[in-house]
Structure formats: structure tokens, C-alpha cells
């Protein structure tokens, strides 16, 4: 395998796992429920994206055949992630979860 | 043809999805894909949005590229916010008034808001006139509202006119 290609795939995988890690760290250290919600919906966009590109490159070059079915992973993820985020947010508002004191604006009373 | 495939766009998307899912272009996958593209819209006719016929192909492509670009840039900003000191965060609930009436367009707008990092769409008001957005760190709510309305809502209203 071409060393340049190999390097590119490695870099993509590292970037991907790095951003996924950042998303999880966000889940751990952000102050309240609503800010924590940003971790998993967010940093994963780039994380999943570059992992998927790395996988497409690897399997296309390894098994001489275009491999595109990885594209479905971000597609389904992008359809479902906003919906689950909204439902989590909605139930958090209904439970009247506390926000950090610095939050401006009020959640709606459901 | 139009009786066999009442929603040609949906059928086409389903065929492509199936071909990607099995990752092959053999005759068998084509037949199965066409069968699914014929059957699924038939079962879902009542659930399907009435006039979901995106009109401006070029605007759609441009909006897609813009969302991808914004997501990439903002991903890095959010990563920096998450790793930086948390007391510097300025979380906020912001109400964004929306003018778009089309249901599919509204769904897409809320999804785009959630996917572009830094904002999550939390709730839609009963009369579909306002979206409650939670921002991870926003100095300037006015500017956020303005950018959502011009960058995403405007093209969506062109694609899905009422």
C-alpha cells in the first residue's frame, strides 16, 4: 500500500477519534444538562465524518472495488441525532432541570 | 409510470439507499431495490408530506455545501470551548422567530440548527412561529438569529415555497 495513502488514512482516523473523544469529554465536564447535550450532537459530526472517509479510502484501495456504503452511516446519524437531541431537551424542560446560573434566557414552561 | 411510482424522488432515493446498503450493483440488488422503491412509498403514501417536491436543485446543493462548511468550522470552535475553562462559557436560551410554513422545511431547519455545532433546537412553539434554541456560548443573540434566518431559513423557503 502506498505510504502516502496509508499516512492519510492514519491522519483521518486520528482526527476522527480525537473529535469523538472531545465530544465525550464535553459530556463529562460541561456544567448543566443543556450544555452537555452539545457534546454528543456536535463534535461527533467531524469525528464520524473523518472516520467514515478513512474507512472508504481503506476499503476502496484494499479490495479493489469502490466502497460507498459507509456514506449511509452519517446519513442516518444526521437524520436521527437532531430528533433525539430535541426529545432529550424537551423532557429536560418538562422536568424543570436546573440550568447554570449564568444562562441567559429561560427555557419554556412545558 | 406515475401510477407505479407516485413519488419518483422518494423511490429513487430508496433504490440508491438499497444499492449502497448491499454495496453491490448486481442485477439482484437492482431488482430488490426497485421493488422496495415501488413498495415503500405505496405503504407510506398517507404519512408522506403533501407537496414535498424540492424545486431548486442548485439552491439545495448550495445549502448542503454551506451546512457542511459551517459544521466543519464550528466543530473546531466547539472543541476549543469544551476543552477550555468552563467558566468562560455563556450558555443562552434564544427564541428565533421563523417565517417558514412548510412542515418538511421546518423539520429541516430545526435539524440544521441542531447539526451546526454550538446550537441545539430545543422546542417549537405550538403555532410554529418560534423556535427555542439553546446555544452553548453566545455573546450576541441578535447576530445568531440573523445568521440562522439569512443563512438557512432563506434558502429553505426558496426550496419549499408555501
From TrEMBL, chain A:
Keywords tagged on the record: Membrane, Transmembrane, Transmembrane helix
Spans traversing the lipid bilayer: 6-28, 71-89
InterPro entries, per database record: PhaG_MnhG_YufB (IPR005133)
Annotated PANTHER family: ANTIPORTER SUBUNIT MNHG2-RELATED
Name listed for the protein in its UniProt record: Monovalent cation/H+ antiporter subunit G
Source species taxonomy: Bacteria, Pseudomonadati, Pseudomonadota, Gammaproteobacteria, Pseudomonadales
Automatic annotation (TrEMBL), chain B:
Signal peptide (UniProt feature, chain positions): none
Keyword Cell membrane carried by entry: yes
Parts of the chain that traverse the membrane: 12-38
Coiled-coil features, chain-numbered ranges: none
Bilayer topology term: Multi-pass membrane protein
InterPro entries: Cation_antiport_E
Subcellular locations according to the entry: Cell membrane
Pfam family, one: MNHE
The keyword Plastid appears for this protein: no
Main localization (coarse): membrane
Assigned keywords, A-Z: Cell membrane, Membrane, Transmembrane, Transmembrane helix
Family: Belongs to the CPA3 antiporters (TC 2.A.63) subunit E family.
Entry protein name: Monovalent cation/H+ antiporter subunit E
Organism encoding this protein: Pseudomonas asuensis
